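2 proteins. here.
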Amino acid sequence: MSYRLGINLGFAINKYIEPEVWTDIVSEGLGLKYVQMVADLLNPFWDEAYLNDQVRRIKKETARKNITVESMFTSAFTRVNHLMNPDEQAREMWLRWFGRFLELGSELGVKNAGSHFGIMTFHTYNDEKRREAMVDKAVEGWQKLSFRAKELGYSELIFEPMSVPREMGNTIARARYLMERVNENCGVPMRFCLDVGHAPDPSERDPYLWVRALAAQSPVIHLQQTVLNKSNHSPFTEEYNRDGIIQREKLMDCVREAGCEDALFAFEISHREHCDYEDRIIPDLKASVEYFRKAISL
């Protein structure tokens, strides 16, 4: 089995955006070697000259500090409708955006990349015909991207099952349905980026149920501490572990039971912009790494 401990770079958004800084935090501060890059730190909407300079700096610093950029994902500012935007012109724009996103990831040696499947507006979701037509359009969009991903050397695309129906994949059956639809005609397969803390359909809010069902098809698993019925993205500190439902031993037992043999376990921990939290970011991340080091050595 190959289990790797890493971090989603969402923690760095607007706080530690310089490649020289976040690579120091990941390598020296946290002792990690794997990251999931986020679009908010490398956004295809930016000017090409700036993107190229950012890629150059990231490659230089990750090579110097022995960090692998294993995955690419959308994040806080790019959590938008994209392939389920009701406007066809916008969907086409986002297809081009994802195509460039995949190219940037390829330059960094990324294995997989993705996002949420798409987000419907209420106007779309509340009408059954519009809803199903939009699913078809998103499936077609992801299929097109899967062939571009194959050309660029990716292993798979990934999408994250979300917590409410219009954000897609909020039940295990629905998540599998979307994956299978894309994989009916794909260049590289669609897989999951499973988040252990999402609070989906009320009948399926046990996170270990999701892990047992989907971990084997999840090359990336987001780690966060939370409580039942919420997705708090809290750190794994003594304070939050006291009431939290994510326990490292139970989680890893479920991962193995699911048949998952290869995955990046990436912390996805958020701190509000608040005076009480600014000084806790790095200590909380260090404590979270220490907590999971006893279960995942790499």
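next one coming up
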Amino acid sequence: MEKDLLVALEEGFQSFSKGHKLIARYVLDHFDKSAFMTASKLGKTVGVSESTVVRFAIELGFDGYPAFQKALQDLMRNKLTSFQRINVTSDQIGEDDILDKVLSLDIDRIRGTLNECSKKDFYEAVDKIVNAHTIYVIGTRSSSALASFTAYYLNLIFPYVKLVRPSSTSEMFEQILRVDSNDVAIGFSFPRYSKQTLNALKYAHNNGAGVIAFTDSKNSPLVKYADNVLIAQSDMASFVDSLVAPLSLINALIVAVSMRNKENVSNNFKRLEDIWETYDVYEKNESDYKA
């Protein structure tokens, strides 16, 4: 479904049957809660059968209830405030066995990422990075951690890696001013999406650079300006963004890039080991002293 799901519900409300109106009204008023309800639970909550809920999803143009639910979850993640996300987390996870539940959700996110991420886009992204003159890495707010991690390791492999730190919009454009068709821009953004990151990728795209977007969905606004989209699930409805799956995907990308530059990477790390030893960068363990 192309249009905003809530808009579609509002526009079609008067044409719905009585049972479908009950479902639509509940979803419109409580989309944060209904996003995680099964068809059976949603039906019981509003007083209709499970089959009625399924037919409602199909009438809206979805293949079935799971597709409708996913669309609702995608919408929810981008619309909820941090305060609302805390309440959803409480409903979804509760207060018991939080460690097990949170880690289990992250494991599910990695599995989902493996199924959703396009291998074609992944390996094309590797090619773009390997062949780029300058690599620009962009991420704001919680995604800045992903950008920093990526830039750190790419900088150990390539001579021209630039971590864009946009403290303001004007400063961001100053940092990417010279981006051109010889370069690649890697952007990270997950709900709620950063306008700064979006504008940076738009600028890079308009200047002919290759654009790689790390995001959570094909409906992400970053997709419009990206040559390659690497989808990583970040579905935990919490004020704390779950970055486990995106980080795992980044690890895979860095490994793939390094395997394409084995000799260069090997030489770089030999030099680094000599530097670390000479300038006593790392603490030695007891076995090192005994040796």
